[in-house]
Hints:
Elements: E1 2-3, H1 6-9, H2 14-18, E2 21-25, E3 32-35, H3 40-49, E4 57-60, H4 66-77, E5 81-85, E6 88-92, H5 105-110, H6 118-125, E7 127-131, H7 144-152, E8 155-160, E9 163-168, E10 179-181, H8 187-198, E11 203-207, H9 213-224, E12 228-230, E13 236-240, E14 248-251, H10 256-269, E15 273-276, H11 284-292, E16 295-300, E17 303-308, E18 317-318, H12 330-337, E19 343-347, H13 357-363, E20 367-371, E21 374-378, E22 387-389, H14 393-405, E23 409-413, H15 415-421, H16 425-431, E24 436-439
Parallel strand pairs: 3-15, 4-14, 10-11, 18-19, 22-23
Antiparallel strand pairs: 1-5, 2-23, 2-24, 4-6, 5-6, 7-9, 8-9, 11-13, 12-13, 15-17, 16-17, 19-21, 20-21
The structure holds uridine-diphosphate-N-acetylglucosamine.
Residues 41, 44, 112-113, 139, 141-146, 184, 186-189, 210, 214, 327-328, 350-351 line the site of uridine-diphosphate-N-acetylglucosamine.
Amino acid sequence: MPINNTEKQLTLNQDHLSSKYLQVLGSQGLSGHIRVSGAKNSALVLMAAALLADRSVCLSNVPLLADVEAMSKLLVSMGIELRRNKNQLEIITSSINLSPKDLSCEVFHSLRASFFCIGPLLARLGEVKIPLPGGCKIGTRPIDEHIQGLRALGARVEIENDYVVAKLISPQKRLTGAQIRFNCKSVGATETILMAATLAKGMTILENAAQEPEIQDLATMLNKMGAKIKGAGTSRITIEGVDRLNGCSYMVMPDRIEAGTFLIASAITRSPLTISPVIPEHLDTVILKLQECGCLIECSGDTLSIIPRKNLQAVDITTSPFPGFPTDLQAPFMALMATVKGTSKIEETVFENRMQHIGEFQRMGAKILLEGNTAYVIGDNNLKATSIAAGDLRSCAAMVLVSLAANGTSVVQGLEHLDRGYEDFAEKLNAVGANILRTYSVPLTNHE
Ligand code: UD1
């Protein structure tokens, strides 16, 4: 099914997207199996990486998400043809007809991952003017590491008003390999420079690179396209530049953050679940923490079975880059800790402003003290349903989870965030016994 205009391309149900509230009935047991979708953070960067190919790239297991739709819109606005069939997406990049003014600011601002396009566009077109990125408001989220990396590869990069303007300055109009040491471990910067360096002349060495599985997924696809990348998944990545990259077919890896969210859904409702497909090593730290607090977790191939004890205990977590505890699961894990016995210390070290969910949890009766970026959660399995609103993607998922554990019916707002990153979140939970209703108008509930 060819999709070459933005209207036809919107495959998410519009009624579903415009409904604003989730009404969540608490204290319901869950049981059964939940299927994990393709990883949002992989799919988005793989879509941008397709811009490097001079033939079509066919992705499978692409999740149906608002962020993927926004990225699709962006590619279409560059003259790229997309063909979509359910979770398959073919990106035909032979037709990039882009001038810098064509890039719509609105789409770029709505999506942090839009900035991924800078490396591929610069490498292929020699020049790009790209609006500054948007995304979840969880910190200042600078892009200095991306810019310094591109400069090290020989590009001239300036920020002009709300745009980043990048240009190749070498007479050969090609990036040049370089040795780059990142000042901090950044997933986005590692991905931007990795993509740009695949078409650079000579060898690039990235040090202090981020090690997240999404970077390995990106490198695996780029190598399938003909790139020469070694060491992705470690802190030192080498990239031997090639002249061109081919198209390929590639399956997006399973979403480790979605899988982790459902493991926590099991724990918070004290209900057994099986979850697949997963790559268990991607969830090692999360599994260890859940085991430490009293969940029995068994792994068989790509399936995790989790049976939580009734009397779970508090454990401490500190978020950090992979293989540490993922910042994207900090809010869901805090929701769980609000329901267990004891006091847990939750320290956020990746983003400086990622504790906004605490106020909403407190409105449900959670006892949480915040000191800087460390929260002390005094667990108590007696949360009361109420109306709560999320300001970012992962905290919205956490609010649904905490509502599943509360007494009464909660109303969760902020679904525009949830839809960015979870495919059929409520539907998947309902299929294993939750009672979640999506509505347009303020639900009439006294929360009891
Ligand atoms: C990605 C993920 C996001 C996840 C985050 C950390 C995508 C689309 N999003 O975001 O879900 O929460 O990794 O695992 O993949 N930093 C700088 N300068 C830079 C870039 C980053 O100082 O140029 C800092 C950030 O402010 C932050 C830290 O590095 O404190 C990590 O950010 P980064 O890994 O870049 O996150 P994103 O790629 O934005």
